[in-house]
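Archive entry. Fields below.
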Amino acid sequence: MSPSMVSVNVLQGAIVAAEGGDEGFQAPGIESFWWPIFGSDTSNWAFTRPSFVLMASVVIIGMFFITVAGKLSIVPTRRQWYAEQVYGFVRNTIARDIIGAKDFRPFVPLLLTLFTMIAFNNIMGIFPFVQFPTMSRIAFPIVLTLIVYIVYHTVALRRKHGVVGYLKSLVPPGLPGWLKPIMFVIELLTYFIIRPLTLALRLFGNMLAGHLMLLVFILGGEYLLLHGSNIGIQVSGILGMGFGIVMTFFELLVQFLQAFIFTLLAALYIGDAVSEEH
Amino acid sequence: MTGNITFLGYGLAAIGPGIGIGLIFAAYINGVARQPEARGMLQTIAFTGMAITEALAILGLVFVFVCQ
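PREDICTED_STRUCTURE:
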């Protein structure tokens, strides 16, 4: 299936179906994640569906929090209560408990933005008529990770008195001398390569795998139901689609969990940078 | 029957992280059952451990598509 065929039905909620019954079932793959709205398929530049969802999410979340913050009252309205719940969760459960009561305040806006944005974009993965998780394109998690990466290194450089102090603080105190160089290399790799790599890839991989799994169950079920040769295969197609619905709700859980874990790990890395000891 | 053997390899590779995450949450449930007031602290540790263990599975998933 060519990407240009995908762009024809881009606004329909229905995800790419196998073209023509006589060619056999075409399993969904990486090409199911390329949805340009406008822009060419051949060049590297295109305005895609996830870009649109991301921009919409920024506008919607921003409008929501700005309008709520504009008229705060002692007795909260329903919207204010929702906003306070989300804010309180990020502020208390993630920021204060992990970064520490002394230093967490400057980082609450960043963490709240990360959490609400990732959660909103992930839920768009199963929201009717959008049904595309933004973070299943690797570019979006990379940018979010880059922001976290810059923040925690900057904070660490400030708190630990420059580059030398930062590098010294990587090795935990009280180690025997021969272990120190090995530990230093391991910690250096962890801080500068493993952490950002896994932070970006975890979000990306979970969203990609979850969406791919839904595609396999729904499209496979549809193919078995419509093109099955006997009644047994058609019934198994219905079962496959039913299991796809079950997995959709499982996806809802995973999407919230991934937003939580991304924010949690960002807070953990910042907390590591803020703390005085190792 | 045609297909890509890398997917099979990833399925096998996912067994390890699966067992690891199971062990982590088993320990977490045990800890909370014994000391319910330590829930908040244990939750952070459990999710951190899960994130590190899960990284192996995620790397495997990426390698499936890279090595195709």
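CURATOR_NOTE: The beta strands of chain A are 36-38, 47-48.
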